[in-house]
# Entry
Amino acid sequence: ESAAGVTASVNEIPLTPPVNMQLPAATVAAHVATTHNSDGSVDITLTSDKVALYVVLTTLAQGRFSDNAFALLPGETKVQFLPFGAKQADIEQLQASLRVEHLQQNMMSQASVIFI
# Structure
């Protein structure tokens, strides 16, 4: 934490390879906001019913995510999509091409992702 009490970075370090982890089947939902923030970014709300590890966001829209490849705890979190080379992110392309994946999808057939 900084002197102002702001966390600059969080890193989860697994103590075992993913193949040895016993993870619950997680359902992750993503919702892209329909309006821009004042800086041109767009909020993406992610929810999960269980812990989802290595949540990765990809899109064809030009820009980057404020966080990526992270652990998503049950509940809700927001990630911002920040545009490259434009004042505002392309919300339509972001909504159409957003892809959300997590570790459990590759380990279990019952895990899922829902776009709302």
